[in-house]
Amino acid sequence: MTVMSRPDDSGRFGAYGGRFAPETLIPALEALEEEFEAAMADPEFLRELSDLLRDFVGRPTPLYEATRLSEAVGVRVLLKREDLAHTGAHKINNTVGQGLLARRMGKPRVIAETGAGQHGVATATACALFGLECEVFMGVVDIERQAINVERMRMLGATVTPVTAGAGTLKDAVSAALRDWVATVETTHYIIGSVVGPHPFPTIVREFQRVIGEETLTQLGDRRPDVVVACVGGGSNSMGMFHPFAGRGVELVGVEAGGEGLSTGRHGATLSAGSPGVLHGAMTYMLQDDEGQVLEAHSISAGLDYPGVGPEHAYFKDAGIARYESVTDDEAIEAMTVLSALEGIVPALESAHAIAWIARERAALAGKTVVVCLSGRGDKDLDHVRTR
Amino acid sequence: MTLTAALRGARSEGRTLLLPYLMAGVPTQEATVDLFMAMAEAGADGFEVGIPYADPLMDGPVIEAAGRLALSSGTTFGRGMELAAGVADRTGLPCVVMTYVNPILRRGYERFCAEVAAAGLDGVIAADLPVDEGEPLAAAAKEAGVSLIPLVAPTTSPERIGLAAAMEPAFIYAVAELGVTGERAGPNERASALVARIREVTDLPVGMGVGISTPEQARSAAMVADAVIVGTAVVRRVLEAGSNREATRALTHLVSALRAAID
Asked: What is the structure's pLDDT at A167?
């Protein structure tokens, strides 16, 4: 199986991706692509990034054998501990990289969207580190359910702008950030938080997140897991984990938000239950009605509550490079509880989806070795889960 | 009269067309065509009819709210197209629809363009479809005898203006301001420079919109452009009106004032 290491000239992964954005943004996207390629070929940039990942982010994160969980489910489970990265999730890998890019491009202001707040916190952190002005767009529903992260962003000096449009969740925050960017593009860099958006964002975010999979490969040495599993909202932790594993004979499984169940229509399982269309600048799978109107997603997990998905995942699905499953809100909460009790690790609700899939598929996975991307820690979710 | 003929006629007479925008289904499906009729009587030369889309990335809060209102009161994409056909039929003026690419994609480019043509509409503006991605829709439009109108922004390079011109649209849509649709205070500082850059590349007519809401701004735009497009100022008056009669009166007043400023 060959895997495209980069999109083609029009920014496509197979039939997906591209640059479906207002004309005002296109020159900035072209300039960003050029700057990104120059940066990734610049040893000085790469050295600074790698130093920061080690000394500021705390990489490499451990690959930890979850012995008690393994015993309980009859599957050997290794956790890639992105929850131990600075700020508590994998999002920081991307924001440090893109923060360096913003500085390199001489853009004094950064904007970002956030759902669970982890990307917002990671962006605010990178902006504090590099002395950049930071504004984070966040849906009003998410501000409510991820209140701790709102306070963290403010402590880090960011402005958090509530988004009331639509359902007040991640989709609306992305749209608000894109609208701001149309007006401010000459002085502002948009640090998008996932492998979504118009080209070159899906590639940039993947390249800054692939450190997850590369470290895991190194930590495994000669060993090969049977399965690698990660949750998929927009799909940045999963793509960062999957990409280096693709074509190596390891089964790749992305777990989407099943919400209240796919049959209820209240879910965020874009690849499992959506269809191809254009959302937020890219051709990809999305949740839409018969007339192509975007539908609202639903998930207890703000980070997976999104009606689109990264275009490279759409390509991975169609090409059979990865497969995509879903688990429900209830299964995710149960998995959060189980992992906390058995391993002393409180996972983010997003990451708990990946654990929940293993628990559900334990019979089929019996005796196998599974690597899970534990993308973030769950402190932010405790209030929300407790009051549910 | 077709839009192309209207633009050609206006240029030879040294006048500028006024093309107001309103969203189909706003404030109600029943009132939409009447409001366009009122604008026609007040001096509009043609129209942009908005077809509501759930995630309008190029629109500011006013048009976004109009889209929400239209969608929530049953103006589906198909119903919006019917209303646009009604506007073209009743007013007898050139009309283009303005929307986003996904519902067009969902319908199928060819089917959609055939519908545009059958409805007596002159073309389509898809606000999130830049020229690089626009080729398939432009080809389908040409096949159906209608036009895909490309947008050109203050940030657009001469090379990209050339790509837009190569599509041979009825006109090139010059985005007068950085940013999404909405009213701005003061003059559109970069607009005339943008039109000058377009004129260096092509003789195609230029329609200017985004951020043009006052008679003063319209007058400045008319000095350089072949057509002036006013959207948010129209939509806001309709959303703020307490009744259809009040909306009609407000639009008559606005369009008359814009007309007087342009001529």
From this structure: 85
